[in-house]
Amino acid sequence: MPTYNKLVRDGIPAIIAQTGKEYKTSKVAGNALRTELKRKLLEETEEFLQSQDDLAELADVLEVMDALLVELGLDWEALRQIQAEKRHQRGGFKHGVFLEWVED
């Protein structure tokens, strides 16, 4: 019997139930949820990196980011504002600048 011990999408238990298989879930909240969302972000990012630039995998990253924003009491507008400020101060990534070294 496989053991997963990881955060899954809310609809996964219903999908498993349709197969007739037994399963066990529990709920996480607060700091435990934040920790699991961060782990999930790493997992989904790794899956995207290993894919052939699969947009479905990138969408999974966004789904986790949505959940993290809610958990942190923020929204996309707040995140985009921070992004704009950082872009204004340091630039973006559209020019492909690759830093090779800096003198000590």
Can you give a write-up of this model?
- Helix 2 runs antiparallel to helix 3 (55-71).
- The chain starts with 11 loop residues before the first helix and ends in a 14-residue tail after the last helix.
- It has helices at residues 12-18, 30-50, 55-71, 76-90.
- It has 104 residues and is mainly alpha-helical.
- It has a single domain (12-90), classed as Helix Hairpins (Orthogonal Bundle).
Summarize the structure.
The chain has 104 residues and is mainly alpha-helical. The protein has helices spanning 12-18, 30-50, 55-71, 76-90. The protein has one domain (12-90): Helix Hairpins, CATH 1.10.287.
Helix-strand blueprint:
Elements lengths: L11 H7 L11 H21 L4 H17 L4 H15 L14
Helix pairs in contact: 2-3
Helix/sheet category: mainly alpha
Number of domains: 1
Helical segment count = 4
Q: What is the CATH domain class?
A: Mainly Alpha
Count every beta strand, where a strand is a DSSP E run of 2 or more residues: 0
The H-and-E topology, N to C, reads as HHHH
In terms of per-residue confidence, which ranges show pLDDT below 50 for 5 or more consecutive residues?
A: none
Reported for the largest beta sheet, the result is: none
How far apart, in Å, are the first and last alpha carbons?
54 Å
Rg calculated over all Cα atoms:
18 Å
What's the architecture, going by CATH?
Answer: Orthogonal Bundle
Shape descriptor: elongated
Q: Please bin the fraction of helical residues.
A: 55-70%
Looking at the structure, the CATH topology is: Helix Hairpins
The overall average pLDDT, rounded, is 96
In percent, how much strand structure appears in the residues? under 5%
